[in-house]
Design a protein that fits this description.
homodimer; mainly alpha; Tetracycline Repressor, domain 2; disordered C terminus; DNA-binding
Chain lengths: 213, 213
DNA sequence: GTCTATACATGGATAGAC
DNA sequence: GTCTATCCATGTATAGAC
């Protein structure tokens, strides 16, 4: 069922064989890391010979790039949806954190590749990905700035706090295991509460409301 | 000066050549990852031939393990010192977070290897490292439990919150750059404040005090 | 303890048949 | 579009001289 979700994420743009290679690549890269993964392994998981990989992707690095780009676009979409949604900054921030943390938990396999294999990208591919990452940072910082302007949040260091919030969610991909005791939904809820307390103005209307559920 | 600190961390137990290989290994593994690093590269950075590495370490994996063990022992020492220090839970937690985040920033090169190359360890070496990591988790959770018992903290999910706090600090190693605008000290201060707000009881004596510096 | 030289395995990528 | 076979570079680790 994890497989189904991961597969669905690649859409219907590519031929089916390319999709199989993408999911195989995600699994292999997440398990062993990009450099330790062989093209033979990827092709094998997709039920193909090593040579078949090169019909659909120019190089092994190109396969990584496609995975990374789709993943980053998805991540940006999640934050953008929350940022552009209705409601006060506190509600929008909670939505963003809930969904972003949840995504990193539910798709920790993809997220691991997306977040930890950037260094393996070629120079041009890397630049394209960095642009997407800047978007994500800017969108989240915007929500926090809104909350500070409205007096809803009290945050001394907005860029630092935005960085910490993203960092907290991203690191979920490192440690989350489907076998663990927490579901992605529960984790999203926990994290939204923790972040809410991090930014809430002391006298605010619901300061501390999330502390004891 | 980063080099001096990294070197100093390896103590004076080993012959000097082994120390050079350890620092070279840290730098290389942090830059390119364990699997993408060649023994030629490590030996070259240490000013030696590839063969010299095998005089001091049984395999490349053994070199990684030594780095990982020293790093984890250092990390545990930092958390243990804070946990066993004097003062209320809030003070001890702030000390732990300040020092732990600061260490991951200042020694982000070492920390990157310590935190992100675990999967490259052999089975027995991995088990030894996992034991150290469990210690770290237990020590931090203990501080939070103390604060909850004393009514100083209000935390609904103690294990989840402890995990989030460690996760936040660990991820510093991923993004921190010495070229960035924040110093390790400033980062430790910021993070201690953020975590303080995450756990503080709403009516507590200094609830929100850290919000505006 | 360090070197040069090298054995031996593995892996990315391609050629050419089907 | 996929396969089998293979080229060629690279990488870990060792042998043996100094």
């Amino acid at each position: 069922m994890q497989d189904v979700q991961e597969t669905a994420a690649w859409g219907d743009v590519e031929p089916e064989a390319a999709q199989r290679l993408l999911t195989a690549g995600v699994e292999a890269f997440a398990e062993r890391g990009y450099h330790a993964t062989t093209t033979r392994d990827i092709a094998g998981r997709a039920g193909m010979s090593p040579a078949a990989l090169y019909i659909h992707f120019r190089t092994k690095e190109d396969l990584l790039f496609r995975i990374s780009r789709v993943g980053h676009e998805r991540a940006r979409g999640i934050i953008a949806a929350a940022a552009e949604s209705e409601g006060a900054a506190g509600e929008r921030l909670a939505r963003a954190v809930r969904a972003f943390a949840r995504w990193h938990a539910e798709h920790h396999t993809t997220a691991r590749v997306v977040q930890y294999e950037l260094a393996a990208l070629g120079e041009e591919h890397y630049a394209e990905i960095v642009a997407l990452r800047r978007d994500i940072d800017r969108l989240l910082r915007g929500i926090i700035e809104d909350g500070v302007r409205d007096g809803e949040f009290a945050v001394a260091d907005v860029p630092g706090t935005a960085l910490a919030v993203l960092s907290l969610c991203v690191d979920v991909a490192r440690w989350f295991s489907a076998a663990g005791s927490r579901s992605p939904d529960e984790l999203g809820e926990l994290y939204a509460g923790l972040v809410g307390r991090m930014v809430a103005a002391p006298g605010g209307r619901d300061a501390g409301s999330s502390s004891q559920k």
